[in-house]
Amino acid sequence: MKKKILIFGSGSVGAHHANAARLLNANVFITDINFEQLEYFKNKLYPNRYGKWDKKIITVNYKDIFNDNKKYDLIVLGVSPFNHLKLIKKCIKYLNFKRVLVEKPLFTFNQKIDKKFFSKHEKKIYCGFNHEISSSILFVKNFLKKKKKLNHLNIYWKESFKYLLRAHPWLKNIKETYLSDMKYGGGVLHEFSHAVHLTRSLMNILKFPNEFKFDSKIFYKSVNKNRKYDYLSKIFFKNKNLNISTFIDGISTSPQKKIMIKSDNEELVWERLSKKNIEQIKIYKKKRLYINRKYKVTRPKDFITQMKLLLSNKKNDIRCIECNNFENSLKTTELIKRCIKN
After folding, report:
1. Distance (Å, whole) CA 62 – CA 47
2. First to last CA, the chain
């Protein structure tokens, strides 16, 4: 029997999820609170990106969704971050589903979370940190598990709001979006929270002790008196043995992601080179290259890999995606909050 997938949000992210679901031969239903956006998705966005409209994608009026008796294998929330909390609760109350995927970040830094409410449902909830489950990142995680001592772990996450807007041609500039307001999930700590989540995951593998020095430096742009967003954020952890730093840049001209891990005689460099559609890992021992791996990647592939795991019932698949479960994703939101409040 075909899987049933319901997608909230018919923007760029919704299109990625719809395409992934159809390539996995699922029945896809998509809705949006903005009817005009849903029409744009059907007539322009999806056909322009994937060649033609897929008639097997069913567009549904938002008002009709919550009277639906279908049982969904997966619900995807591809809406703006500030709306995640309200919509998850609504899905839990009115819809029948096996799992729900919330696009990153899980929540915004200023929202109050009723942990008691979510304790009953958290095993169903995952967050869309799909970089975390790529083959190359899994290699990095296994590499770290074998290391007894490290000196430095540095993450450089260079993105571009301008580059991001190119995927949303109906928007003229960042000021037209929630991206320019931290209160609604804007800024680099929210929008590019892959880097924050990855920092936490790698720290967990390293079993970084509770006693450490923490610092953050946030650089803001003000839109008006009540509206601002971070365009550059830096996070630092330090104890007597290990320095960890994360730099998230939202104004770089060309997206590039890099992880550098150093010990006394060994260095690992992971990079995602978007223009070349590759992720590569180089490991040096005493400055000599002895491992050089390359993985072909694309943004559609990221979403397909993630969806396969979420639709699976295999223990290994579920174990692989547990890094993005509710508990771990909520801790990432809490770290974002700590950075901002620091």
Report:
1. 22
2. 50
Instruction: Profile the chain (342 residues) by mean pLDDT over runs of 10 residues.
Output: 94 95 97 94 94 95 90 97 96 95 97 92 96 95 88 92 77 86 96 96 81 91 92 93 93 83 93 91 94 94 96 94 96 96 89
Nearest to 230 by CA among 95, 114, 108, 121: 108
239 with 210: CB under 8 angstroms? no
Q: What is the pLDDT of residue 253?
A: 64
**Considering just the CA atoms, what is the radius of gyration of the chain in Å?**
20
What's the 3-state SS for the chain? CCCEEEEECCCHHHHHHHHHHHHCCCEEEEEECCHHHHHHHHHHHHHHHHCCCCCCEEEEEHHHHCCCCCEEEEEEECCCHHHHHHHHHHHHHHCEEEEEEECCCCCCCCCCCCHHHHHCCHHHEEECCHHHHCHHHHHHHHHHHCCCCCCEEEEEEEEEHHHHHHCCCCCCCHHHCHHHCHHHCCCHHHHCCHHHHHHHHHHHHCCCCCCCEEEEEEEEEEEECCEEEEEEEEEEEECCCCEEEEEEECEEEEEEEEEEEECCCEEEEEEEEHHHCEEEEEEEECCEEEEEEEEECCHHHHHHHHHHHHHCCCHHHHHHHHHHEHHHHHHHHHHHHHHHHC
Residue among 58, 57, 97 at smallest CA distance from 77: 97
Q: For residue 68, what pLDDT is reported?
A: 83
Query: Are residues 98 and 74 in contact, defined by beta-carbon separation less than 8 angstroms?
Result: yes
Mark 62-74 as b/e (b = at least 16 C-beta within 10 Å): eeebeeeeeebbb
pLDDT score, position 216: 97
Q: How far is residue 253's CA from residue 233's CA, in Å, rounded to a whole number?
A: 17
The phi and psi torsions of 181 (rounded to 5 degrees) equal -140, 110
